[in-house]
Amino acid sequence: MLRGMSLQYALLGVLEARPMTGYELTRFFEAAPRWVWSAPHSQIYPALRQMEQAGLIEGRQEIRGTKLRRMVYSITERGLEELRTWLGTDHAAAPVRDAFFLQALFFDMIDPDQAASVLKTHVAEQEQLIAEWRAHREALLAKDTDLLKERLKNRPPAEHDRIAKLKAHVFAGQIAVARARADWARESLRLLAEET
Q1: Which positions fall inside the Transcription regulator PadR N-terminal domain (predicted)?
Q2: CB atoms < 10 A from the CB of 173, how many?
Q3: What pLDDT sits at residue 2?
Q4: Among the four 102, 130, 135, 152, which has the fewest Cβ within 10 Å?
């Protein structure tokens, strides 16, 4: 079992919907605001090699056009079993490493205007995430994302609404977290204004 390696489980979860090339996976994971996990190209390809060696996925070379070769990865039965085991297992919370809150912890060391600038930027970033996640949540509820469409092809129609609602609910959680962070930053701005 690949314990503690969430990227591999994220890749397995995506590949369960449909086979993809490393390039497609990289593009998917680089679009982080549309999803819950991000990873750079430099992490994805080594993970794919490791997963293939472990028998969790298999790569099949395809030829596009006359010469272009590409590797298409798909999940194996062993990979699906591994993913389901991981999904059904309680996992300890990851250690907290939040650069923004670490920065905020030491705001007393800088000019309040500088701290306010950081806080305002954070609020704007959270509002942008809320907008992106809200749009993605709505697309999921409408069953109108490429990956969900692929996943639903392999699921009984009676389950489609439940699957879409479960996936959309994850983004409702992301929205709630971003809203709480933005509200916290606004309260911090109020506290900074009291000091001056």
Answers
A1: 11-84
A2: 12
A3: 44
A4: 102
